[in-house]
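Students often ask why inverse folding is considered easier than folding. One informal answer: many sequences map to the same fold, so there is more than one right answer. In these notes we will look at a single instance of the problem. The structure comes first.
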C-alpha cells in the first residue's frame, strides 16, 4: 500500500503550493488569499522507487466550534486520521504564532510521525533563523520553498523515513487469472452496504472474510454463474461500534487503495443526490489508475419524477463525459432491481481490459483509418503512421510507430481510439494510445 502524507497548517502558509510540488501537478488552486482550500484534496506523488498519496487540507483551527472553520477542522482531522505521516507546514517568514502552538498541541497528543516544514524559506537555511520553531516540541525543522522547489526531495525523504519502507518495491501478490477482483467505490450513503448485502444474501453466494490488510480492507470471495469474483470493500461491512465517532465512516484513502488493487471498479452514484464533485473526483482517479469501470446509479426507484431522472442522465453525460466508454446502469439495490445486467457489464469490462490485439489486425486498422482520414499537417510536418502493436493490458495500450508523431492531435487520437474500440468491442476499459516516432540517423551529422 502507498504511504499517505497529510499536509496540515494554518491558512496561507503554502500547503496547496507544496501539494502541487509534491504531486507535480496544478490540481490545487493557489492564490495569495487565506482560506482558499476548504475540502481535502488527494493526489499521487513519486520519488525514486517510492510512491505516496498526498492530502491537502484547509487552514486548521483545532478549537473552532462553529461555522465553516469547524467543518474545515473536521476535514483536517479526517486527513490526519487517514495519514501515516503528518507534515506540519509553517511560514518561515512570519515565524511562530499562537495558532501554530494550538496545532502543535493537537499533533503531539496524536503520537503520529510528524515533520515540521518551514515554507517560504528562500535563503533562510541557518539554524538561528529557524530556531524559534523548535519551541513547538515536534523535533527538527526542514526549510523548504514550495514555490521555488527547494528542499522538496529532503522533505519527502524525511517524511517517509519513519515508515521504514523497503528499498525495493514490494512483490506483487499473485492473482488467480480466473478471479475478477471487483472494488465497489462511491461516496458515503450511496448504498454500497445494501448492494453488497443483496449480492451476498439474495443470490446465496458463499462468502467469508479473509484476513484484512493494515487498512482494514475486506476481501469477500464469491461465485456467480461459474465465474469467481473477489469483492474488495473498504467501508460497507464494518460494524457501527468499530467506527471512530470523531471521523467520517468513509475513508477516501481506502477507496483509492481499493481502486488500485482491483481489476474492475463499480462506481456507485446516488440518484437522489445527482452527480457530485466527489463522484467526479473518484471517477477521475479510476481513469488515472487505468482500471475498468462500470457505473451504477443507485436508488433509481426513489426518483419518481421523469424530469428529475432526465437531469440525472444529463449530469452523467456532462460531468462523467471522460468515462463515455463505461456502461451505465440504473438500479435499486434495496429492491433488487436491475442487478443482473450489472454483472454482465463487469464481465465485459474485465474481458476488454485483458483483450489481446494481434499486430497485423492493429496495423490494418491503422492504415485503413489513415486512408479514411489523414492526420492534420502541422507547419512543415505531416505525421506518418506506419504500424501498430499492443504494448500492454489492463488497461490495453496500443503503440503506434511512424514519423513526426509528436504532431498528432488529441482529436485524431480519439478518432483512432474509436476505430480500435469498435473492432475489438472494448467497453468499460480505458484505452491508451502511445506514439513512438522513429529517430533520424542523420539528425546529429553535419
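Output (designed amino acids):
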Amino acid at each position: 500500500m502507498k504511504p499517505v502524507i497529510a499536509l496540515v497548517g494554518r491558512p496561507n502558509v503554502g500547503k496547496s503550493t507544496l501539494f502541487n510540488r509534491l504531486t507535480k501537478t496544478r490540481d490545487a488552486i493557489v492564490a495569495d488569499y487565506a482560506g482558499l482550500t476548504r475540502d481535502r484534496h488527494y493526489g499521487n506523488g513519486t520519488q525514486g522507487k517510492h510512491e505516496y498519496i498526498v492530502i491537502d487540507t484547509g487552514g486548521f483551527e483545532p478549537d473552532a466550534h462553529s461555522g465553516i472553520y469547524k467543518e474545515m477542522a473536521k476535514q483536517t482531522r479526517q486527513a490526519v486520521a487517514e495519514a501515516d505521516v503528518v507534515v506540519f507546514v509553517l511560514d518561515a517568514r512570519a515565524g511562530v504564532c499562537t495558532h501554530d502552538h494550538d496545532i502543535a498541541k493537537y499533533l503531539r497528543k496524536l503520537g503520529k510521525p510528524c515533520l515540521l516544514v518551514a515554507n517560504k524559506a528562500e535563503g533562510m537555511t541557518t539554524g538561528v533563523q529557524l530556531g524559534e520553531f523548535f519551541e513547538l516540541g515536534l523535533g527538527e525543522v526542514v526549510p523548504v520553498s514550495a514555490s521555488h522547489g527547494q528542499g522538496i526531495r529532503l522533505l519527502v525523504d524525511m517524511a517517509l523515513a519513519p515508515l521504514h519502507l523497503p528499498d525495493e518495491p514490494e512483490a506483487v501478490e499473485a492473482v488467480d487469472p480466473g478471479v475478477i477482483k471487483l472494488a465497489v467505490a462511491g461516496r458515503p450513503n450511496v448504498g454500497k452496504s445494501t448492494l453488497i448485502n443483496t449480492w451476498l444474501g439474495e443470490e446465496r453466494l458463499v462468502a467469508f472474510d479473509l484476513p484484512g490488510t493494515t487498512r482494514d480492507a475486506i476481501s469477500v470471495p464469491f461465485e456467480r454463474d461459474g465465474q469467481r469474483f473477489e469483492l474488495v470493500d473498504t467501508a460497507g461491512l464494518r460494524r457501527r461500534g468499530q467506527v471512530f465517532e470523531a471521523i467520517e465512516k468513509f475513508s477516501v484513502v481506502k477507496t483509492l487503495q481499493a481502486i488500485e488493487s482491483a481489476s474492475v471498479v463499480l462506481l456507485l452514484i446516488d440518484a437522489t443526490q445527482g452527480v457530485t464533485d466527489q463522484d467526479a473526483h473518484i471517477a477521475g482517479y479510476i481513469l488515472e489508475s487505468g482500471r475498468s469501470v462500470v457505473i451504477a446509479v443507485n436508488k433509481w426507484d426513489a426518483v419518481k419524477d421523469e424530469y428529475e431522472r432526465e437531469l440525472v442522465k444529463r449530469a452523467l453525460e456532462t460531468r462523467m463525459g471522460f468515462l463515455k466508454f463505461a456502461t451505465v446502469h440504473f438500479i435499486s439495490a434495496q429492491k433488487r432491481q436491475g442487478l443482473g445486467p450489472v454483472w454482465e457489464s463487469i464481465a465485459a469490462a474485465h474481458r476488454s481490459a485483458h483483450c489481446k490485439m494481434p499486430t497485423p489486425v492493429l496495423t490494418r486498422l491503422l492504415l485503413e483509418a489513415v486512408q479514411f482520414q489523414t492526420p492534420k499537417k502541422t507547419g512543415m510536418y505531416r505525421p506518418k503512421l506506419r504500424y501498430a502493436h499492443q504494448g500492454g493490458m489492463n488497461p490495453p495500450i496500443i503503440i503506434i510507430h511512424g514519423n513526426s508523431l509528436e504532431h498528432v492531435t488529441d482529436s485524431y487520437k480519439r478518432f483512432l481510439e474509436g476505430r480500435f474500440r469498435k473492432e475489438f468491442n472494448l467497453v468499460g476499459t480505458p484505452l491508451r494510445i502511445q506514439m513512438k516516432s522513429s529517430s533520424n540517423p542523420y539528425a546529429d551529422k553535419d
